[in-house]
């Protein structure tokens, strides 16, 4: 979810995206090499953490076309005192491309909460003309959820397996990995409050989606203030009262020095332990939470706050072309679901949202007293809310495959979103033209993984300054704008992408 709000908000009080090869679990721990007997590898010598933390590893894979394994690991090599290996899918990881990843070789034996950061490139060497070598660069912070990272669609198999292209010579290919390891603070010794001024939320098992949403809502000043003003009584128990549980949680986020537990809040939702370990839909949770708060605010000093913050209105219309007849219907929304497929950025999605559909031929519109008529059908916005929540339609049902699929298309979003552009083409005639619909990016909720699972975290800039922060469950870190924005654009299989974002 992306949060954007009108500018300014009162602040009181890569072309190809990289991905883990699996949605659910890291690659298994150290295990025997799954290689043909004639395959060889040249591991980099082990080195201590104090040595230069960068090295090149070259992997010579012989009898390549005769490999009959789905995935193949290189030998272990050391960079920065850490164990690494390269993982390839010779026939592609469910794609018609060579799939290749850098893997933390000892991930299964590392302590809980470990992480390490690496800048690296993966290459398939062209043995005839080196200038045609295929090389892709990236960087990633490896952890237990994402212990391997790289490219599902590294290069087309038809090119790799064609001997005339120069990649496969004498049934041998050469793979290179250039890895530079940057020291990162140990997970447990990292003091989020000291380093950033903010604290994280503890994960109950699969509640990262909820933690990301709660951090986003907490950092909207108006929302936080409204929660604090919700009336509660001394007889209330946090585990039985959503308002009190949320007040308690927000207070702890504001004043605690360590990460905050969410069990009281989930109990107030009526969730048992099993529910906590089920990954719910962020959009659904946001709507349910807002509905419950909206109901609890009725008859209080903060009644109507949820509507004032998040509710906008649009007008559905059908207008006949040949007769004077028009039908309109006003509807409210708390968030907007935008198409990704076929859209390069947020503006293209809005263009598609208001696109006019022609009702003609067998699809003519039946107008009262006029019978079947050619008509235009569409949607225009009457007003936008102070806090605009955009949800991306990254998942859709594929009728041919009878399954849900993920849309991995590259999709860009701006720091500022001008919804008055091109002579206010998104607005209906009855919209208030004195209102300036200019929004500033506040937060980005990111989903890493696939259709059936993954991990959520949030990039937020609480005061709308240039400094972004990554809220990843218990851990809060400072991040630059490139990681918060550009790396969420997508464009690769099993990619990390922004699921929604909020503008203010």
From TrEMBL:
The GO annotation for biological process reads: protein deubiquitination; proteolysis; regulation of protein stability
Keywords for the protein's UniProt record, in alphabetical order: Hydrolase, Protease, Thiol protease, Ubl conjugation pathway
Superkingdom: Eukaryota
Which PROSITE patterns does the UniProt entry name for this protein? MATH (PS50144), USP_1 (PS00972), USP_2 (PS00973), USP_3 (PS50235)
InterPro entries linked: MATH/TRAF_dom (IPR002083), Papain-like_cys_pep_sf (IPR038765), Peptidase_C19 (IPR050164), Peptidase_C19_UCH (IPR001394), TRAF-like (IPR008974), USP (IPR028889), USP_CS (IPR018200)
What does UniProt give as GO cellular component?
cytosol; nucleus
Q: Which catalysed reactions does the entry list for this protein?
A: Thiol-dependent hydrolysis of ester, thioester, amide, peptide and isopeptide bonds formed by the C-terminal Gly of ubiquitin (a 76-residue protein attached to proteins as an intracellular targeting signal)
What EC number(s) does this enzyme carry? 3.4.19.12
Per the record, where are the segments of Polar residues compositional bias? 1-10
| The keyword Protease is assigned to this record | yes
Domain MATH: start-end pairs = 54-179
In its UniProt record, a GO molecular function of this protein is:
cysteine-type deubiquitinase activity
EC class = hydrolase
Residue span(s) of domain USP: 199-504
- Region Disordered: what ranges? 1-50
Q: Family, per the entry? A: Belongs to the peptidase C19 family.
Free-text function comment from the UniProt entry:
Recognizes and hydrolyzes the peptide bond at the C-terminal Gly of ubiquitin. Involved in the processing of poly-ubiquitin precursors as well as that of ubiquitinated proteins.
Record's protein name: Ubiquitin carboxyl-terminal hydrolase
* Source species of the chain: Rhododendron griersonianum
């Amino acid at each position: 979810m992306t949060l954007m709000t009108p500018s300014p908000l009162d602040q009181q009080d890569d072309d190809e995206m990289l991905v883990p090869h699996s949605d659910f679990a890291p690659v298994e721990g150290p295990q025997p090499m799954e290689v043909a007997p004639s395959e060889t590898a040249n591991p980099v010598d082990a080195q201590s953490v104090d040595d230069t933390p960068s090295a090149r590893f070259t992997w010579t894979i012989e009898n390549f076309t005769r490999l009959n394994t789905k995935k193949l690991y290189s030998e272990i090599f050391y960079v920065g005192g850490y164990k690494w290996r390269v993982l390839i899918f010779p026939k592609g990881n469910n794609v018609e491309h060579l799939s290749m990843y850098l893997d933390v070789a000892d991930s299964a034996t590392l302590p809980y909460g470990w992480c390490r950061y690496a800048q690296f490139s993966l290459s398939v060497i062209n043995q005839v003309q080196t200038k045609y070598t295929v090389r892709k660069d990236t960087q990633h912070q490896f952890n237990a959820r994402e212990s391997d990272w790289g490219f599902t669609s590294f290069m087309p198999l038809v090119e790799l397996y064609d001997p005339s292209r120069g990649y496969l010579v004498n049934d041998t290919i050469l793979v290179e990995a250039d890895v530079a390891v940057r020291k990162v603070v140990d997970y447990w010794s990292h003091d989020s409050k000291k380093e950033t001024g903010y604290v994280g939320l503890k994960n109950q098992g699969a509640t990262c989606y909820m933690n990301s949403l709660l951090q986003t809502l907490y950092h909207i000043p108006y929302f936080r203030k409204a929660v604090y003003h919700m009336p509660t009584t001394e007889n209330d128990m946090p585990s039985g009262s959503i308002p009190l549980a949320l007040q308690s949680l927000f207070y702890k986020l504001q004043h605690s020095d360590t990460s905050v537990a969410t069990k009281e809040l989930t109990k107030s939702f009526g969730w048992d332990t099993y529910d906590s370990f089920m990954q719910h839909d962020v959009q659904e949770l946001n709507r349910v939470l807002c509905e419950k708060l909206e109901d609890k605010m009725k008859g209080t000093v903060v009644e109507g706050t949820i509507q004032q913050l998040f509710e906008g209105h649009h007008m559905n219309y059908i207008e006949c072309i040949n007769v004077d007849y028009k039908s309109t219907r006003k509807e409210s929304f708390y968030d907007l679901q935008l198409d990704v497929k076929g859209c390069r950025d947020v503006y293209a999605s809005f263009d598609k949202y208001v696109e006019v559909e022609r009702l003609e031929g067998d699809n003519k519109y039946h107008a009262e007293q006029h019978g079947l008529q050619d008509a235009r059908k569409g949607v225009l916005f009457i007003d936008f809310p102070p806090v605009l929540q955009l949800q991306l339609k990254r998942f859709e049902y594929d009728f041919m495959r009878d399954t849900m699929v993920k849309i991995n298309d590259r999709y860009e979003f701006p720091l500022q979103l001008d919804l008055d552009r091109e002579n206010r083409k998104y607005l209906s005639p009855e919209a208030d033209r004195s209102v300036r619909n200019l929004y500033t990016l506040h937060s980005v909720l990111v989903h890493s993984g696939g259709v059936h699972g993954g991990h959520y975290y949030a990039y937020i800039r609480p005061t709308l300054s240039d400094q972004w922060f990554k809220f990843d469950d218990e851990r809060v870190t400072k991040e630059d704008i490139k990681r918060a924005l550009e790396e969420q654009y997508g464009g690769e299989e099993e990619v990390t992408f922004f699921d929604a974002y909020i503008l203010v």
